[in-house]
Amino acid sequence: MANLSVCIEMFWPQLPYDERVRRTAQLGFTAYEFWGWKNKDLNAVRAAQEETGIALAAVALEPGFAVVHPSNEKEIVQGMIDTVNVIRPLNCTSVIVTTGDVVAGESYEITRRRVVRKLRKMAAVAADNGCKICLEPLNPFVDHKGYWLTTMAQAADIVEEVDSPALTILYDLYHQQITEGNLIANLQRFAHQIGHIHTAGVPGRHELVGGENDYGVLLRAIDEVGYRGYVGLEFRPTIGEEAALKQALSLA
User: Fold this and answer.
1) What domains appear along the chain, each with residue ranges and CATH number?
2) Looking at the chain, which runs of residues are DSSP E strands?
3) What pLDDT digit, counting tens, does each position of 69-91 carry?
């Protein structure tokens, strides 16, 4: 059975984040996640987490979309230090890392070498703090035009070269359906490197029911490869938050 986590960035946008945590728990979920942490009242979020007993599955690195940058190594490593220090009181161990966009005038391989160098240092910080990095490929066609890291094979190649147990892949089934398809084949091929999963319907990034991705089949495939981590619900509901999240729970 999938261990579902609700990305509270996508739900109840009119409410403060701590109330979103409470709403998530009230619907029967055992985990939640969010993107950047600098725009949140973390004391209030922590209070809601402790009140409900829900777990924090993952948080995005601050600064985000910055690993490809040619001259920010100290900043990005400090960002990892700051992020693991922020999530420790929240009992969270997963840091989502996005690379940023293609660097103009620079070949893929030159950018890749720099990304690997930075990720080695970032992974060392994560490992020293009992955390893991979840490196995320995104689609460059609809949501993140110009994004640098786009395929599972590219991410797996980087993970293999960095060679740290603290570096994993975030497999986003929404983004990868748009980018390359072959969702189950890639799940099977890269299961040993996947540290987190995201879901949303294609097209539109809405509910898990009714789009190209058959999430009943995909969630079974996730179980079959032995993945036991969190599966994040990162979609925009069109039928109301409660109905959409209950629908997702019924698939798990």
Assistant:
1) 3-251 (3.20.20.150)
2) 3-7, 31-34, 55-60, 94-98, 132-136, 167-172, 194-199, 230-233
3) 999 999 999 999 999 999 999 99
